[in-house]
Amino acid sequence: MSTTERRQKVVKSHPRLSLVQQYIILNIHRSGLYYKPKSESPLNLRIMKDIDVQFLEHPYYGVERMTDFLNLDLGYHVNVKRIRRLYKVMGLQTIYRKPKTTIRDPKSYKFPYLLKDLVIERPNQLWQTDITYIPMFRGFMYMNAIIDVYSRKILNWSISNSMDKE
């Protein structure tokens, strides 16, 4: 049951249960009964209408680009935080190309998986390596780890700011 439904079940003039007892039973805060949510201001409604018109034509406009459009082209004085909140209220999500990190060449040889039927039953029988991208303030750091498959123990690792053979 949602909080709104529980708030609606409170009876202010109940013959046997006080308001405090009803709040405890329904597990809601007392201040929630008196809270009346505000609707959007007329300015925000006008901005949302303009966002909707522009977003239908350009669904790839993100928050910052839409902010620039509203400020420069339509003459509003709004910041990124307001537009981000309005995007969330309107349920808008920009359409953009997803990054293609792995692109296979269809002509290249596809190596068979040699470990398909291998039963791993002791330590140091099989090692695997893995490269992890760690996002930093500017760019990425790359961590390479060598793992024993049987014990899941990390045997060695290194970290670098460039991905090369070394």
Question: Which key phrases capture this entry?
Answer:
15% strand, 166 residues, three-stranded antiparallel sheet, alpha+beta, flat
Describe this structure in words.
Helices cover 34% and strands 15% of the residues. The protein has helices spanning 3-8, 19-26, 31-34, 42-57, 63-73, 80-90; strands at residues 127-135, 140-148, 154-160. The radius of gyration is 29 Å and the shape is flat. The chain has 166 residues and is an alpha+beta fold. Among the domains are: 7-34, no CATH class; 42-90; 127-160, no CATH class.
Secondary-structure blueprint of this entry?
Blueprint: H1 3-8, H2 19-26, H3 31-34, H4 42-57, H5 63-73, H6 80-90, E1 127-135, E2 140-148, E3 154-160
Antiparallel strand pairs: 1-2, 2-3
Helix pairs in contact: 5-6
